[in-house]
Amino acid sequence: MAKDFPTREENYAQWYNDLVIKADLAENSAVRGCMVIKPHGYAIWEKIQGQLDKMFKATGHQNAYFPLFIPKSFFSKEAAHVEGFAKECAVVTHYRLKSSEDGKGVVVDEDAKLEEELIIRPTSETIIWDTYRNWIQSYRDLPLLINQWANVVRWEMRTRLFLRTAEFLWQEGHTAHETKEEAVEETLKILDIYAEFAEKWMALPVHKGLKSANEKFAGAVDTYCIEALMQDGKALQAGTSHFLGQNFARAFDVKFLSKENKLEYVWATSWGVSTRLMGALIMAHSDDHGLVLPPKLAPIHVAIVPIYKNSDQLAAISEKANEIKKALEAKGITVKYDDRTTFKPGWKFSEYEFKGIPVRLAIGPRDLENGTVEVARRDTLEKETYQITDIENKILHLLDHIQDNLYRKALAFREENTFGVDTWEGFKAQIEKGGFVLAHWDGTTETELKIKEETKATIRAIPLSGKMEAGKCIFSGQPSEQRVIFAKAY
RNA sequence: CGGGAUGUAGCGCAGCCCGGUAGCGCGCUUCGUUCGGGACGAAGAGGCCGCGAGUUCGAAUCUCGCCAUCCCGACCA
């Protein structure tokens, strides 16, 4: 596998595509724009899901499930929302097929036309708020903190595995609150969870920020985001959290009786991360030898490869390897002992390397004599010989170290590729080269769009942690209070 | 939806100009030797040449139509 694999330098886009395929993460399916997520890729997604799900539940959220189909009429109730999604909706119009006239196939049965067409959810705000109307009567029913893990469909023109597919997997949280303050607090709480997850689990440094009016979610009052920088200098929106105000409550007539016995509209949030995180994970750490996974999201932490000349040797090595495996597993480390006789050691080394397994152990006859094991780390590709004594704690420490190293590398990369720019010429030049560009902006959509038109760069985030600093808009020269993050984006 | 390209074995491709027995590499199967970084040898299996019409004694190859996919743009988590 992966002998003819391009380097990032040669062709970044090709490198990404080949990596996803050759690391067995996903492949294109028979359905245009839709991917098959393969076991190795799905195992990583399950790790992502598992951790996020814990974090949501720890903050009081519960999972539920709403339908895939949304009646078309629901969609038109929130004007900005329709506007934003109308162009990419798949629509179900019929509910039956019949044999074709020539008997060779099936055709849509025109007699089975739906009275009301169904939209395949591009997101679930409408069906959920229509449901919440019945769930919420009093302040005692609030807050309502619900999440769902689901698939959604957005009919994209151009797709790329994980980064943009017509169907993707995600979680969408939908909450209802008594007050504006509480809803805003929820929006930011989730943003913090996303940022913490990105940094601690994905080893991916992110900027927390606010989206400009132009970039915000269709139907939101404010959209917050976490924004990451990929190795090719392009930005990737890794998660969004929306303060929806009372927009959906008004559209779907969701009111509650307050403690003061007044009928009021509830305040809402919604928030999501998707399988796009897989794309972020891949592009953040991987190298010209293949995928690199942070230990906290690696389905397998350690692969053990035996090296032997005959079956007696294999038996002796297996005994030792299984001992090590047990000791590691007792510490919560996931281990695969690969004693397949159908592949050679060199082949296995390459495979685990390409698939991003953080640590590889090799045990041969020499190690057996010396009480040692060869330890190879995926992040640095370094090999070292360890005494087997206390191996479990040594590996545990190594895994922590790898996790930390990946984060620090990604952070250093981001810092090296973040530039403050104060002139229009300098701005254009830097955007061309890539990276995050911190520049002043006059706050108008008009200016943002003109900048996009001329440079293809968009405002990725108005940073929450950004220092206030008076300046002049890079494009219009109008006064500005704060630098915002510009970049070309995925 | 505009511009460009491509459909031949599981994958990657050659053959097409100039019509005449469908080929190469990888992968796959079996056997043997190997095994501390992608082993080697030998023997095999595998095809409606995208689909449909036409021209021709004869079409992967020429003509027309259709379909599909990929790349580049506009739209997007």
Strand content: 25-35%
The pLDDT mean sits at 94
- CATH top level label of the largest domain: Alpha Beta
Shape: globular
Q: Total domains, how many?
A: 3
- Structural class estimated from helices and strands: alpha+beta
Calculate Rg over CA atoms. 26 Å
Biggest β-sheet: count, sense, barrel?
A: 12 strands, mixed
CATH topology group of the largest domain: BirA Bifunctional Protein, domain 2
The CATH superfamily of the largest domain bears the name: Bira Bifunctional Protein, Domain 2
Helix content: 25-40%
Write the layout of secondary structure elements.
Blueprint: H1 12-22, E1 26-28, E2 35-37, H2 39-58, E3 62-63, E4 69-71, H3 72-75, H4 79-85, E5 91-94, E6 97-99, E7 106-108, E8 113-120, H5 125-135, E9 144-153, E10 167-177, H6 180-201, E11 207-210, E12 222-229, E13 235-245, H7 247-251, E14 255-257, E15 263-265, E16 267-274, H8 276-285, E17 302-306, H9 311-329, E18 335-337, H10 345-355, E19 359-363, H11 365-370, E20 372-377, E21 383-387, H12 391-416, E22 418-420, H13 424-433, E23 436-440, H14 445-455, E24 458-463, E25 468-472, E26 479-487
Parallel strand pairs: 3-9, 17-18, 17-19, 22-23
Antiparallel strand pairs: 1-2, 4-8, 5-8, 6-7, 9-10, 10-16, 11-12, 11-24, 12-13, 13-16, 14-15, 19-20, 20-21, 23-26, 24-26, 25-26
Helix pairs in contact: 2-6, 9-12
The protein binds one RNA strand of 77 nucleotides through strand 13, strand 16, helix 10 and helix 11.
